[in-house]
Amino acid sequence: METKRIINPRRLKIAREEKKLNQKDLAEKIGKAQSAISYIEMGRNNTSEQDIEKLSKILGVTVDYLTGVTIEGGPKLDHIRMTELESDKLKIDDRWVETYNRLKNLKIIEFDADFADENGLPRVNLSLVLSKKSPVPGSWIPLLESLGGNLDYIYSNRHPIIKFNKSRKVSNPEELAFNIRALQKNIEEDTKMLNHLLNQLLPTTQ
After folding, report:
1. Which is the most buried residue in 85, 102, 130, 172, by most CB within 10 A?
2. Between 3.40.50.720, 1.10.10.10, 1.10.260.40, 2.60.40.1120, what CATH number should domain 9-66 receive?
3. How far is it, in rounded angstroms, from Cα 85 to Cα 77?
4. pTM for the whole structure
């Protein structure tokens, strides 16, 4: 099954700034409105393969760099920015694995082997990614979206981790009940996380 490639928002912004282009200038070069580039850099994008190719050529970077597959093929960054980029990719990898494990906890993904087979992934590679012994290929990131994984969370750390598709038609009462329970559990987990963050940010009142 062919997977859709998604632009890494931070990579696009770095490459654009290296070319000294603002969002409007870059958008015009691919025949789009400025909002199209703005949405991508905010992590809200559904860019076509054709536009990804156009952007990579205009910015002088590879598609694999732009979609987060590799840190190679990007602009000539200084050491500090390259280190930041590597760190950013590690965080994205961690959030992908966290999202995958959350989907498993919710029983949306039941078996790693089935997930790998259904998406045409080598089982060994998936095992290495889940054990954090191998980076997450950029082409794998969109695979979690149809299952409820939030790409905004994976790319940009924007909650929630899971977003259920409200337009999905559910005719089986048992399936509907399962989805409601899964959503409830997701809300509880995110509430705990938000409370933890609040406790860190706000001083304890006596």
Report:
1. 102
2. 1.10.260.40
3. 9
4. 0.53
Task: Tokens for 121, please give them.
Answer: 């992934």
Residues 6+ apart with CB under 8 A from 31: none
Q: How confident is the model at residue 167 (pLDDT cuts 50, 70, 90)?
A: very low
Q: What is the Cα–Cα distance from 188 to 162, expressed in whole angstroms?
A: 12
CA 186 to chain centre: 18
* CA 115-118-121 angle, 5° bins: 75
SS (H, E, C) the chain: CCCCCCCCHHHHHHHHHHCCCCHHHHHHHCCCCHHHHHHHHCCCCCCCHHHHHHHHHHHCCCHHHHCCCCCCCCCCCCHHHHHHHHHHHHHHHHHHHHHHHHHHHCCCCCCHHHHHHHCCCCHHHHHHHHCCCCCCCHHHHHHHHHHCECHHHHHHCCCCCECCCCCCCCCCHHHHHHHHHHHHHHHHHHHHHHHHHHHHHCCCCC
Kindly report, residue by residue over 78-124, the tens digit of the pLDDT.
555 666 666 777 888 999 999 999 999 888 899 999 999 999 999 99
Which pLDDT band holds residue 145 (cuts at 50, 70, 90)? confident
